[in-house]
Specification:
This protein has 472 residues and is an alpha+beta fold. The chain contains 12 helices and 17 strands. The chain folds into 3 domains: 86 residues, no CATH class; 86 residues; 214 residues, 4-Layer Sandwich (Phosphatase 2c, domain 1). α5 packs antiparallel against α9, α6 packs across α7 and α8 packs across α9.
Length: 472
Amino acid sequence: MFKRKVVHHDMADVNVYTAKRLNDMANSLGELARACTDDLSIEQGLTKEDGIAALQTAAAMVCAGCNKCMVYPGKEQDNQYYLQYLIRAFEQKGSVDYGDMPRFFLESCKKKDDYMIHLNRGLGRASMNLAWKNRFLESRDAVIVQFKELAVILEEFSYQVEHAVDITPDWEMEIRRVFRRNRIIVEKVLLLEYENQKREAYLTMRTMNGRCMTVKEASEILENIMEEGEWIAAPDGKNLITKQTDTIRFVEKGDYQVIYGVAKAVKSGEEVSGDNYTFGQIQLGQVLISLSDGMGSGKTAEEESRQVIELTQRLLEAGFSTRAALKMVNTVLLLTGISQHPATLDLCCIDLKTGILEAMKLGAAATYILGDKGVELLEAGDVPMGIINPVEPVLLSKKLWDDNRIIMVSDGVLDALPEDDKEQMLKQFIEEMPLKNPQDMADRILLFARSFTDRAADDMTVLTAGIWKRKL
């Protein structure tokens, strides 16, 4: 519930109910995920039982009681060497031929051609059934992961709703008074303070005498009232306050601001880069920097890396945690079959209130943090998105300070460097490079990587960001 010093309308009671309902739904999704879990697992190849079934089916269709050879139903096939041999031969070549059959079969069978047709048909049917079964189990496991992640998301939101503090009574009268003095009628007020000290305001208001006011002007008025912090209106709302009543959401800007830079080069012979990136604000008070390297190069790699970037950004904008967003994107890629061409993902989220950076990596190159004490590397595993399920993103956390820099690069940048320890070579270059604005640094790093090769052997992308403390 919203904790309060005094009773303020029925808002807290409503949110106690909301939080409880959200928590109940989270528990239900968790139980549903557990109910879908069983001991079935993905099989890697055909089994002895599949081989025996194919041999017996072929014998039933062709042999008609003939028992001149040992390849017929009723014999003990489990320990026969040729059974395993035939299965492996079929898996490697896609069919069994005469060279794979025992000599006694070739010498004694008068219907070899028919038998081979039915044997290959039986093994092919078993192989198709195995592929469908594994695809079903893959899809089922992906859905289970979705249920679990949705349960976690609902639990997090339920906790946030229940532990938000309603500070409306401390400011409501002053807000109404000051806005009325500026010809604005404030009909309803809700001010919340969260555990991370972020504050948020919802003002239902309209203008007097038919005049209009921009939300930027309203933000400045609220900023003067609240005394501390800088306030802005949410970008997803209206830009003007008119005589029509509307609710405007305002939030604090945060103590830090971020500026970005990017430099890229396309692989020689390709028209488009297979790398994609994005940076900017995903939620008020939180910014995103992400880079995805599609497998290979060209248009196909570009489309796949773009899909990874766009899906992740949409989930983060909707309020999903970075871990949940990456796991859900990975399961979507598995379900849609993009796992044939996986893409790496390097993602950094920065809290502008605290300066805390959370980095998530899936198969991506190291991220470089340049600060007063030199350059620090944030490294993770080598598995790209969409290649395995379940996938566990590696979470790395780092406190950023005023004038720090974040540098992210795609594999093509490191691959162009001549040293065996490419990460250390780039680290040394960054340490010796003059501290400049992010765009200048991105240009210098790309120029350094390209200086070792006449032609770009792979797509190269450098994404940089600088963080600064706001001047109050």
